[in-house]
């Protein structure tokens, strides 16, 4: 009898242990099951991510706008890849449906951010339909303001005649570069200001790929020779052999690279046209002095168009996407060789470098500069001290605050 009682006691103890174990396991299992609905998860849609919270997403349909500004139903195409770039969720057309309501216009919180769509889901089995609109770029908003030849712009052609300064009118003109149509500011312009962090810039032009070329509008970052010592060899006209490249690289690394490097376009490049017309003069001299026909196109791009490594255009010799203005761009902006102009937006009251070579002789080399009076003129020696104003190119899909109008007090401000 004693042994029988011991067996029953052990059986009861064992049963209790097993029940406790099962209970603990069950609680863990249930908590883990519930946990997956408490965290943000991701599902793959061929390429790109869709983030969602809470219960599983049943159906996801993605539609991409074909033409900017057109929100008609026929202007969307079904896609299986979340696009990257300048898109936003169309909150009027996008919607989700919930099984509990059977309502077809229940809008959930949807956010698009460069290849990811985030959706807050509150009920399992929810079906969502997301319409992505192309965000108008800055040039899309400004194209309607382009001035005509009759209003003061040079002719729309490769190398139009530019024979006079522009110091009174504020113009947005249309030209041609190696990548398509370019839109450039000319004259006494007051609405081409851009703010990047704490730095102020002026828009030179919208490049043919719709990237935005800017010239720094703060204090000169340095006063330097194009090279440290004088040279009479054409190789020193090249930007990569200049002292200025090192100065600009250092400034870019210290002020732009970490925060703003991702919005820079390194493929559009900077034209350091060092081709020569003869043994003395470089081609920029012939265009500006002799023919008075500047161009936005770059001669021998494989050699003279300085682009960043890893790109598809130019010589890919740059580590950082930073350079200088060309004398051709300064001419389109309103400057003329050997004629003062204090009225156009590139006038600063101090001389600064372009990256366009002028001529070479047995004794020295000359590079174009914008002088203290705003005229386009050559330097006497390549080691003359002039100011350094950086030029950069922002990607076409760079976003700006909506309320900016480009004035100094209310500039187009970059959003990161």
Structure description:
- The chain has helices at residues 2-35, 138-142, 243-255, 257-260, 283-291, 301-304, 327-332, and strands at residues 40-44, 49-53, 57-65, 76-79, 87-89, 95-97, 110-112, 116-120, 126-134, 170-177, 180-187, 193-196, 199-206, 212-216, 222-224, 270-271, 305-306, 352-360, 365-370, 376-378, 386-388, 391-394, 399-400, 412-415.
- It is built from seven helices and 24 strands.
- Strands 10, 11, 12, 13, 14, 22, 23 and 24 form an eight-stranded mixed β-sheet that branches. Strands 3, 4, 5, 6 and 9 form a five-stranded mixed β-sheet that branches.
- It is α+β, with helices and mostly antiparallel strands and 416 residues long.
- It folds into two domains: 40-134, no CATH class; 138-415, no CATH class.
Strand tally, please? 24
Number of continuous helical runs? 7
- What share of residues are in beta strands? 25-35%
Rounded radius of gyration (Å): 31 Å
**Classification by helices and strands:** alpha+beta
Task: Summarize this structure as a short list of keywords or feature phrases.
416 residues; alpha+beta; 2 domains; eight-stranded mixed beta sheet; five-stranded mixed beta sheet; 7 helices; 18% helix; disordered N terminus
Brief characterization of the structure:
By secondary structure, the protein is of the alpha+beta class. It has helices at 2-35, 138-142, 243-255, 257-260, 283-291, 301-304, 327-332, and strands at 40-44, 49-53, 57-65, 76-79, 87-89, 95-97, 110-112, 116-120, 126-134, 170-177, 180-187, 193-196, 199-206, 212-216, 222-224, 270-271, 305-306, 352-360, 365-370, 376-378, 386-388, 391-394, 399-400, 412-415. It has 2 domains: 40-134, no CATH class; 138-415, no CATH class.
């Amino acid at each position: 009898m004693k042994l029988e009682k011991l067996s029953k006691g052990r059986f009861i103890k064992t049963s209790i242990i097993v029940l406790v174990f099962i209970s603990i396991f069950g609680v863990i299992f249930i908590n883990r099951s519930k946990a997956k609905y408490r965290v943000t998860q991701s599902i793959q849609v061929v390429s790109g991510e869709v983030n969602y919270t809470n219960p599983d997403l049943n159906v996801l349909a993605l539609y991409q706008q074909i033409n900017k500004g057109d929100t008609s139903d026929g202007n969307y195409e079904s896609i299986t890849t979340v696009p990257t770039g300048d898109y936003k969720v169309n909150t009027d057309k996008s919607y989700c449906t919930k099984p509990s309501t059977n309502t077809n216009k229940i809008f959930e919180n949807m956010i698009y951010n460069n290849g990811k769509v985030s959706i807050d889901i509150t009920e399992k089995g929810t079906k969502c339909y997301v319409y992505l609109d192309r965000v108008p770029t800055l040039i899309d908003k400004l194209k309607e303001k382009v001035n005509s030849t009759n209003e003061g712009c040079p002719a729309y052609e490769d190398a139009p005649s530019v024979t006079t300064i522009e110091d009174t009118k504020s113009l947005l003109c249309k030209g041609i570069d190696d990548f398509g149509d370019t839109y450039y500011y000319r004259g006494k312009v007051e609405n081409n200001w851009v703010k990047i962090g704490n730095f102020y810039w002026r828009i030179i032009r919208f490049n043919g790929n719709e990237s935005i070329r800017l010239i720094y509008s703060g204090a000169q970052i340095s006063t330097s020779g194009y090279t440290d010592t004088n040279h009479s060899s054409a190789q020193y006209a090249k930007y990569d052999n200049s002292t200025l490249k090192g100065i600009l690289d250092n400034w870019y690394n210290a002020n732009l690279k970490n925060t703003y490097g991702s919005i820079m376009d390194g493929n559009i490049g900077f034209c350091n046209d060092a081709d020569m017309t003869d043994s003395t003069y470089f081609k920029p001299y012939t265009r500006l002095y002799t023919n008075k026909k500047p161009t936005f196109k770059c001669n021998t791009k494989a050699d003279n168009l300085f682009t960043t490594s890893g790109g598809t255009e130019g010589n890919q010799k740059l580590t950082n996407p930073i350079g200088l203005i060309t004398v051709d761009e300064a001419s389109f902006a309103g400057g003329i060789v050997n004629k003062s102009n204090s009225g156009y937006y590139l006038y600063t009251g101090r001389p600064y470098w372009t990256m366009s070579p002028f001529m070479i002789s047995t004794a020295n080399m000359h590079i174009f500069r914008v002088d203290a009076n705003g005229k386009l003129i050559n330097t006497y020696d390549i080691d003359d001290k002039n100011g350094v104003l950086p030029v950069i190119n922002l990607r076409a899909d760079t976003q700006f605050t909506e309320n900016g109008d480009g004035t100094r007090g209310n500039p187009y401000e970059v959003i990161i």
